[in-house]
Amino acid sequence: MELIVSPTSPFARKVQILAQEQGLADDITLRKLHPIENADELAAINPLGRVPALRTDNGQLVVDSSVICAWLDNLAVSRGKATLLGEGPSACLAIQQLQALADGIMESAFLMVMERGRPPALQSGFWQERRQAAVTRTLDYLESGDVELMPTDLHLGSIALACALGYLDFRHDDMQWRAGRPLLTAWFSHWEARESFLATQPPG
Ligand SMILES: N[C@@H](CCC(=O)N[C@@H](CS)C(=O)NCC(=O)O)C(=O)O
Questions:
Q1: Of 18, 190, 77, nearest to 3 (Cα)?
Q2: Residues 161 and 98 occupy one common structural domain
Q3: Which of 33, 99, 125, 188 could tie 38 with a disulfide, CB 3.0–4.6 Å?
Q4: 52 CA distance to ligand 1 middle (Å)
């Protein structure tokens, strides 16, 4: 199958990490397309014009990182692996909830990068502040302990959060997200050393 990625996309990284952790990397051919520079080529594959997108071996299109991850996880389970999406309603909900929060951070952080790439006169301070506030609030919420974060946890929620924090390091160094957040900092330090995380670093 073919996975369309951009090396800087945190959503594409999430899919790649899940695939590696589930032993599927050899089943996947990566194709790099930039959403803006290769817009036509990408739109011909994914009508949303976004990465990641997956084309299965029988030509079926799968879009949205959460759907791609669920599909890949299912494939891995059919080959005898344990699921990374949780067993039973409460584990499943906790993992999906963490993924949704992490995806929200990624989305706001990504849109901030897009906004600051526009001509200064067109940039919206209102939207930048609103997205920054969403990221800050969500990080504080995660730091508050309302969501259980175990350093050794490996599941789709923790993969998504690692990608979100990695993206903040990559694109929003100025946010200094670790300041005043010892729990998240300690949690992320385990991820920073993980093989699948190191193998999917965005370009330096
Ligand atoms: N909800 C989508 C978000 C994907 C997304 O926003 N991808 C960005 C790159 S990080 C993109 O391709 N944006 C291009 C666009 O929106 O035009 C997912 O989880 O796959």
A1: 18
A2: yes
A3: 33
A4: 7
Q: Secondary structure of the chain in the HEC alphabet?
A: CEEEECCCCHHHHHHHHHHHHCCCHHHCEEEECCCCCCHHHHHHHCCCCCCCEEECCCCCEEECHHHHHHHHHHHHHHCCCCCCCCCCHHHHHHHHHHHHHHHHHHHHHHHHHHHHCCCHHHCCHHHHHHHHHHHHHHHHHHHCCCCCCCCCCCCHHHHHHHHHHHHHHHHCHHHCCCCCCHHHHHHHHHHHCCHHHHCCCCCC
Question: Are the beta carbons of 13 and 202 closer than 8 angstroms?
Answer: yes
Beta-sheet pairing, 2-5 with 29-32 = parallel
- How many A from CA of 125 to the centre of ligand 1? 22
For the segment 154-182, what is each residue's pLDDT rounded down to a tens digit? 999 999 999 999 999 999 999 999 999 99
In a domain, 204, yes or no: no
Say how many Å lie between the CA of residue 39 and the centre of ligand 1: 12
Which residues lie with the beta carbon below 6 Å from any ligand 1 atom?
A: 6, 9, 11, 35, 49-52, 64-66, 103, 110
Domain for residue 15, yes or no?
yes
**Does residue 100 fall inside a structural domain?**
yes
Q: Which domain holds residue 159?
A: 89-195
pLDDT of residue 177: 98
Is residue 19 one of the residues assigned to a domain?
yes
Q: What is the tally of structural domains in the chain?
A: 2
> Is the same domain home to 72 and 120?
no
